[in-house]
Amino acid sequence: VWFDNRGSRNGIWYKKWNGTGWEADIKLTTIEFGYCNLPSIAIDSQDNIHVVWYYCDYIGDKSYAIYYRKWDGNAWGTASKLTNDSSFSYFPAIAVDNNDNPIVVWHDRRDGNDEIYYKKWNGTVWEADTRLTDDPKSSVSPTVAADSYNNFHIAWQDNRDDGNHYKIYYKKLAATAVPVGGAVPLTHDYT
């Protein structure tokens, strides 16, 4: 998946290798006015494809929101808006556990500064947005991975130490999507 500004509107695009060659580009977004960027992709055990990105609405409330779309092996489902606050939700990342349930992480400004949020699909519905970080400084650019025990591992950039320089921080979520322990600095030099 990638962002492309071809034609008069930008969007998120997808391309698949079929074993012998690349298939045609598929546009995953249909927007009239706005901006889509920073897609992230994950594949589950059934080879279903999960994609997230952020979208900025230029005409409406001018907020940034996280969107999700899934390929179920036969067709692309409808794009779903995952965040509904009127602030900035952007820089999403996605991972899928062994039960084929995705989790999405992003950074968000709804609290007045950049914080990391996440939400998980529980097999039936998307759970509520949950704040992962809680610091008056900035926590940005998260990434996420799932392990074989269905735990989630989230890393991000954070400038909580001095407000100017970023370090990499990490936090683990149990399979129930509950945080385990506090934020752990992974780097001791500034990035």
What this model shows, in words?
The chain is mainly beta and 191 residues long. 0% of the residues lie in helices and 46% in strands. The chain contains no helices and 15 strands. The strands form 4 sheets. It has a 4-stranded antiparallel sheet with strand order 4-5-6-7, with no helix packed on it.
Number-wise, the strands total: 15
Shape: globular
What value does the Rg take, in angstroms?
17 Å
Would you identify the regions where 5 or more consecutive residues have pLDDT less than 50?
none
Largest sheet: 4 strands, antiparallel
Q: How much beta, percentage-wise?
A: over 45%
Q: Could you tell me how far the N terminus lies from the C terminus, measured between alpha carbons in angstroms?
A: 27 Å
- SSE class: mainly beta
**Series of H and E elements:** EEEEEEEEEEEEEEE
The overall pLDDT, averaged over residues, is: 90
Side-by-side strand order of the widest sheet: 4-5-6-7
